[in-house]
Backbone:
C-alpha cells in the first residue's frame, strides 16, 4: 500500500525529471537572524543546480543543514525519499551526500593522497576492521584515480597544507568524491581562482556528472555559475527569490536588486 | 634501586601511551591517573580478596576500566578542549575521594598484600603495547584518527563516525592506564589513594606533550626522560623541583611540538619497501 503511493508520487516532483533531493519549507534561526526562511527546492537527477545570493543570504547555512552540521528548526530534507533530518553528519554522508567547504578545510598536516584515502567509502565505514587489511594497494589505487581526475596525481605526497589555492580547492572536490556521493555540494569552488582556472574548473565540474547524480554549486562569480548551471536558484535573507534557467534568473528584478543594492536602502 | 627506576620508567611509558591513545582522536585526558587507580585497586582486590591469579586479575581490571572509560567518555566527549580537560580532572578528584571513603579497600589507610609483578612483566607489556601501536601507526585506522584530530567536523561530514572512534580510543586508553595501575600495585604490594592524586594525571600528560604528540616514540621518550631526569639532578637537593620545572618550560619554548614532533605519512603514492 505504502509502496504503491511512493511509486506514484516520487517521479513527478520536478517537471518530469526524478528528484534526487527535495527540501521542503526549511527554517533555521540563529538568535535574531532568520538564516533560512521556509526554503523549498529540489535537485533533479543529472543536473547542475546553481545557488546564488549576496553574502549572508543563507547559502552556507543551507548546506550545513542538509549535511547535518546544523539541525534545522523545521522543514524536511529527503534524499531519494529517505528523510535526512535528525541524522548524524556521517550517516548523511554515507547515504550519499558530500560537500566541500567555502573556507578550504583540508586535513592540512596529512598528505594529498591521505586526504583522499582517509574518506574512501569502502574503508571508512569499518574503522576497526581496517586494522586487519593486508595491503594498502586497493586504497592507494582508488585514491590515486581520484587525484588523477582532478589533476593532482603529481602532488600526491605533498602535505595538503602546502598546496596552492586552486589545487587545494580541487583536492576538496577529490576528497568529497572519495566518499562515493550521489549528490555533491560545492561551496564557492571558484573563490580566489583566476579566470583560466575558473574555466577549467567549470569543465571539471560538468565532467563529474558521470560519477555523481547531481551537483549543487554555490558561487558568487556570475560568469562561472551562468556557464556551469542547468538551473539557478537565487536566495536573499534566507528565502528563495527566483528560480529557473540562468538567463531567466539574472533577468529577474529582485535578483538584480539583491546583487546591486536597492535605491531605497 | 636501579630495578625500581627501571620499573617506574616502564609503568610511566605505559601511562604515557594511555594518554597518547586518547590523544590520537584529539581528546586530552587528565583522568588517566584515576583510571590507573581504578586498575590498581580492582586488580589488587581480585588477587588479595578473591585469590585470582595476577594475569587474570590484570586482564579483568583492564577490561572493567575500559568499559568504565567508555561509559564516562560517551557524555564527557560532548565537551572538548579546555572543558574536557576540566571534566577529566574532575574525574580524577572524584575517584581519589571515592577510594578514600571506601572501607572495603582500606580507605585512607590503603590496600596491601599484592605481589608478583616484576620488571619483566612491565617491559613485556611495553613491548606488546608498542608493537600494537606500531601496527596501528601504519594502518588506515591511524589515518582516520588523524583526520578526526585535524578537523572533527569535516571528518564527520565526510562519513567518518567520529564519536565512535573517540569513545573507542578513550576506552582503550583507560584500559591501558588500568593495566599499568594493576602492575604498579602488584609490584609495590601496598597502595593508598594518595598515590593517585591529580598530579599523576598531570605528569602523564606532560610526558606526552614533552616527547611529542604525533608519534608513539614521543610519548615513550618523554616518559623515559621525565622519569629519570629528577634522579639525575638529585645532587641539587631541595632545588630539584625548581630545576626540573625550568627544564620543562625551556624545552617547550625551544621545541613546542615536543622532542620528536614528526608525523610519518600512512600512505605513499609509490610502493617502496613493503
Residues:
Amino acid at each position: 500500500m505504502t509502496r504503491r503511493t511512493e511509486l506514484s508520487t516520487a517521479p513527478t516532483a520536478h517537471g518530469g525529471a526524478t528528484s534526487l533531493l527535495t527540501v521542503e519549507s526549511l527554517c533555521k534561526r540563529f538568535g535574531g537572524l532568520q538564516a533560512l526562511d521556509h526554503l523549498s527546492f529540489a535537485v533533479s537527477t543529472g543536473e547542475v543546480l546553481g545557488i546564488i545570493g549576496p553574502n549572508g543570504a543563507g547559502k552556507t547555512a543551507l548546506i550545513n543543514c542538509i549535511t547535518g552540521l546544523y539541525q534545522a528548526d523545521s522543514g524536511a530534507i529527503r534524499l531519494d525519499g529517505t528523510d535526512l533530518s535528525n541524522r548524524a553528519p556521517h550517516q548523511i554522508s554515507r547515504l550519499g551526500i558530500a560537500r566541500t567547504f567555502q573556507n578550504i578545510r583540508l586535513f592540512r598536516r596529512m598528505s594529498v593522497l591521505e586526504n583522499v584515502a582517509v574518506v574512501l567509502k569502502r574503508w571508512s565505514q569499518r574503522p576497526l576492521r581496517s586494522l586487519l587489511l593486508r595491503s594498502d594497494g586497493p586504497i592507494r589505487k582508488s585514491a590515486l584515480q581520484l587525484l588523477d581526475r582532478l589533476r593532482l596525481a603529481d602532488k600526491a605526497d605533498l602535505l595538503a597544507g602546502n598546496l596552492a589555492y586552486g589545487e587545494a580547492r580541487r583536492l576538496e572536490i577529490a576528497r568529497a568524491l572519495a566518499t562515493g556521493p550521489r549528490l555533491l555540494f560545492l561551496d564557492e569552488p571558484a573563490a580566489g581562482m583566476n579566470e583560466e582556472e575558473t574555466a577549467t574548473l567549470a569543465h571539471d565540474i560538468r565532467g563529474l556528472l558521470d560519477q555523481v547524480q547531481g551537483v549543487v554549486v554555490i558561487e558568487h562569480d556570475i560568469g562561472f555559475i551562468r556557464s556551469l548551471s542547468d538551473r539557478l536558484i537565487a536566495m536573499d535573507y534566507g528565502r528563495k527569490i527566483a528560480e529557473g534557467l540562468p538567463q531567466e534568473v539574472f533577468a529577474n528584478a529582485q535578483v538584480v536588486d539583491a546583487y546591486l543594492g536597492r535605491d531605497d536602502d | 634501586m636501579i630495578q625500581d627506576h627501571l620499573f617506574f620508567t616502564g609503568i610511566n611509558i605505559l601511562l604515557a601511551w594511555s594518554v597518547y591513545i586518547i590523544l590520537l582522536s584529539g581528546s586530552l585526558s587528565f583522568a588517566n591517573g584515576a583510571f590507573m587507580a581504578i586498575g590498581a585497586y580492582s586488580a589488587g582486590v581480585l588477587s588479595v580478596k578473591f585469590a585470582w591469579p595476577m594475569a587474570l586479575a590484570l586482564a579483568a581490571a583492564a577490561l572493567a576500566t575500559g568499559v568504565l572509560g567508555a561509559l564516562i567518555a560517551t557524555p564527557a566527549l560532548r565537551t572538548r578542549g579546555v572543558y574536557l580537560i576540566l571534566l577529566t580532572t574532575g574525574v580524577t578528584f572524584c575517584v581519589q575521594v571515592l577510594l578514600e571513603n571506601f572501607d572495603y579497600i582500606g580507605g585512607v589507610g590503603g590496600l596491601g598484600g599484592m605481589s608478583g609483578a616484576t620488571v619483566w612483566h612491565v617491559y613485556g607489556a611495553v613491548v606488546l603495547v608498542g608493537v600494537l601501536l606500531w601496527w596501528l601507526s601504519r594502518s588506515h585506522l591511524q589515518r582516520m584518527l588523524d583526520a578526526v584530530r585535524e578537523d572533527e567536523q569535516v571528518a564527520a561530514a565526510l562519513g567518518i563516525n567520529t564519536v565512535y572512534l573517540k569513545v573507542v580510543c578513550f576506552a582503550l586508553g583507560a584500559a591501558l592506564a588500568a593495566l599499568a595501575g594493576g602492575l604498579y600495585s602488584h609490584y609495590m604490594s601496598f597502595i593508598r589513594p594518595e598515590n593517585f592524586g591529580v598530579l599523576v594525571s598531570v605528569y602523564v600528560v606532560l610526558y606526552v606533550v614533552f616527547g611529542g604528540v604525533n608519534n608513539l616514540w614521543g610519548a615513550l621518550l618523554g616518559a623515559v626522560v621525565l622519569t629519570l631526569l629528577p634522579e639525575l639532578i638529585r645532587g641539587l637537593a631541595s632545588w630539584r623541583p625548581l630545576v626540573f620545572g625550568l627544564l620543562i618550560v625551556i624545552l617547550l619554548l625551544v621545541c613546542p611540538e615536543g622532542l620528536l614532533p614528526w608525523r610519518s605519512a600512512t600512505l605513499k603514492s609509490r610502493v617502496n619497501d613493503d
In short: Confidence is low (pLDDT under 50) at residues 1-16 of chain A.
